[in-house]
Amino acid sequence: MTAPRVISRTGATSEELDTDYKWGFTIDIDSDLAPKGLSEDVVRLISAKKGEPEWMLEWRLKAYRYWVKLNQAEPKWANIHHPEIDFNDIYYYAAPKSKDDAPKSLDEVDPEILEAFEKLGIPLAEREKLAGVAVDAVLDSVSVATTYQESLEKAGVIFCSMSEAIKNHPDLVKKYIGSVVPYGDNFYASLNSAVFSDGSFAYIPKGVRCPMELMTYFRINQADSGQFERTLIIAEEGAYVSYLEGCTAPARKTHQLHAAVVELVAMDDAEIKYSTLQNWFPGDKEGKGGVYNFVTKRGIAQGKNSKISWTQVETGSAITWKYPSVILKGDNSVGEFYSVALVNNYQQADTGTKMIHIGKNTKSTIVAKGISAGHGSATYRGLVKIMPTADGARNFTQCDSLLVGDQCGAHTVPYIEVRNPTAQMEHEASTSKVSDEQVFYCQQRGISVEDAHYMIINGFCRGIFQELPFEFAMEASQLLKVSLEGAVG
Amino acid sequence: MTRSAESGGHALLEVRGLRASVGGLEILKGADLTVKTGEVHAIMGPNGSGKSTFANVLAGKPDYEITGGQALFQGQDLLAMEPEIRSRLGVFLAFQYPLELPGVRAWQFLKAAVDAQRVHVGEEELSARAFDRMLKEKIELVEIDPELVKRAVNEGFSGGEKKRNEILQMAVLQPKLAILDETDSGLDIDALRIVSDGVNKLRNESNAVVLVTHYQRILNYITPDQVHVLIDGRIVRSGGPELAHELEERGYDWIKEAVDAGV
After folding, report:
1. Contact check, Cβ <8 Å, A455/B109
2. Nearest-CA distance from A444 to chain B in Å?
3. How many other C-beta atoms lie within 10 A of the C-beta of residue A394?
4. Three-state DSSP class for residue A460
5. pLDDT digits 0-9 by tens, A169-179
């Protein structure tokens, strides 16, 4: 193996934007960076940095070679528009500089980093207010801290960074990584498989109800870097876990690429509830900067009576491209997708889900709410596929769009493929506008124009927020308010 | 109980020569009205005479262009204020067609309204418990189904429920000036009685009610101090409650003719 050059830089160099995005600060730390651009050497470097076993490197290289063959043929079917991405102008590895990049005890974490996460509302010290939620904090390419590991261990739950999992639980990782989202799944999944740097790993053993919510907090800090995390959650027979993820990034003029992969596996009678608050930097009012959020999320409801539920609140990113999906393989398994996607200014979102019914009496529910404001464009894209084996499958889909102002767009692209005549399908869709009359009605009761919009939009999202854990629901509602700033009044 | 206009209340609302148009079409052509505290005024008129416009302009609905005249509320220039400020200062409009706010719980909506009013006058927001207590009292006062406040604002409400909900909002906000825009229309006799009872219970010496209505019917339940006839954007005649009875018997044509004849 050639020894790649490692360069290091300090803090942020790319110009920062002046915006209202209050999470847009840069954490002033030294970073280890791989050279810009992607090559086999960079893949080897990343793997070496992490001290990975040979099989992991081989898998990465297979993914890399596959990706090269795709010849930069990014998917073009989504209703999103952006200038060509120069994949050689991105740092594929950025890590806070320290003795080594493995997570360590909290006392050893750089105080600057602890303080930064505190500022983001994610205190990592266990005595603080996120008591009861185990947090894995991921900064740029590496996990910097995971809380509550001991109490989780007592319950038999493994919750750690992906890097640790590869070292300490190689059999589990080897068995499941790429089992739901293979490296050849799509352009961005291939890219991720080659260069993924960290992410979270959770394993809930048979019959265990995870005693607390698990949370990963992702933060991009380094300028011009991509973030490629990979999350893998396995719930064994009869296990239950509720997992949350939150994300922010500094406000920068250049676009940043975030291409994550999430894989979920639920065995017989297991349930995985996965909630996301996506608040990556959305760019400024003119559409400058912002994160390209190109993410592949998929779960397999492998066992009978298993259940996978995705809830997402997407308010950030310049562009969001993601379709958290469920393969309903086990008989009587259940898949759910609850989504709020809000676009303002020049944001674009093309998001939805796929529900693939294979097992008998499988049931899926899709409730997608799109809110478009400013010059934003929101597209719901979904596929419900009933395979010939899926006797008695049922799906309910509801897609609602809400428009704020007259410069924005909302689109709904539902695909339904039914290959079994016993399937029951229901589809509802609506498009509405926050009407001037509604706003005046609120004003006549003393409520300001801005609060009226916020209230009406919150009402529109109510069914989704109810699916979120309580604290997350409060935060989601706050996020909507902040994201709507400047859209009205 | 009839109160006389000379009862010693002080002027709450003074409208002078108010002109307003919508889409370039002039609807109000110089309307005058003075309302004192403790009074109930009825504004009657045929369809299209400008009654709802009058109510909406006072509340600050943005669709209208004010082309002349003035409106003072407690001596302040009402027309210069944003609609929410008018509301917080005590101007309440019961809508002819109350809007549905899907997913917005009535409880939350009412609390936001009360808090906005309180914060505006420098008071603290109410605690959820204090608000609950107050809301419960008002629900009993206006005889509304307590389940309604658990539902989304007006969503799936019947016409009668919507109108009653307006009266509940009025009870909760305790306005100084309540303008009821055809609140009686579309109500059956029982609902009309409940709505009227609610308004009567909320009347006192320090507030005032303006009833905008097409029919005399509601005036059997709420006795006005003064009745005004609005025709073609102007108040052309004012009188006591007997004027309403006369209109009920004779219609509006005789007044139009009298006005046209310059009487």
Report:
1. yes
2. 5
3. 18
4. helix
5. 999 999 999 99
Sorted by where each starts, the structural domains of chain B and their CATH numbers stand as 11-260 (3.40.50.300)
> What whole-number distance in Å separates Cα of residue B196 and Cα of residue B192?
6
ipTM of this complex prediction, to 2 decimal places:
0.95
* Helix extents (H) in chain B: 51-59, 83-89, 106-120, 128-141, 159-173, 189-202, 241-250, 253-260
Look-up: residue for tokens 């016993």? A422
User: How far apart are alpha carbons A414 and A395 in whole angstroms?
Assistant: 13
Ordered DSSP codes for A363-399 = EEEEEEEEEE-TT-EEEEEEEEEE-TT-TT-EEEEEE
Residue with more model confidence, A318 or A4: A318
DSSP string of B130-154, one letter each residue: HHHHHHHHHHHHTT--GGGGGSBTT
Contact yes or no for B71/B18 (Cβ under 8 A): yes
CA distance A40 to B179: 75
CA A147/CA A136 separation, integer angstroms: 6
Q: Cβ–Cβ of A460/B103 closer than 8 Å?
A: yes
Report how far residue A75's alpha carbon sits from residue A149's, in angstroms, rounded to the nearest whole number. 39
Q: Does A221 score more than 80 pLDDT?
A: no
A16-20, A401-405, B71-75, B98-102: which range is least confident on average? A16-20
**H-helix segments, B83-240:** 83-89, 106-120, 128-141, 159-173, 189-202
- Among residues A258, A109, A113, the alpha carbon closest in space to that of A196 is found at A258
pLDDT in tens, B172-206: 999 999 999 999 888 888 889 988 998 999 999 99
Q: Do B112 and A447 touch (CB under 8 A)?
A: yes
**Chain B CB within 8 Å of residue A55 CB:** no
pLDDT above 90 coverage of chain B, percent = 74
* Token duo for residue A317: 């990113």
Name the token pair of B155. Answer: 């969503």
Q: What is the distance of C-alpha A89 from the center of its chain?
A: 23
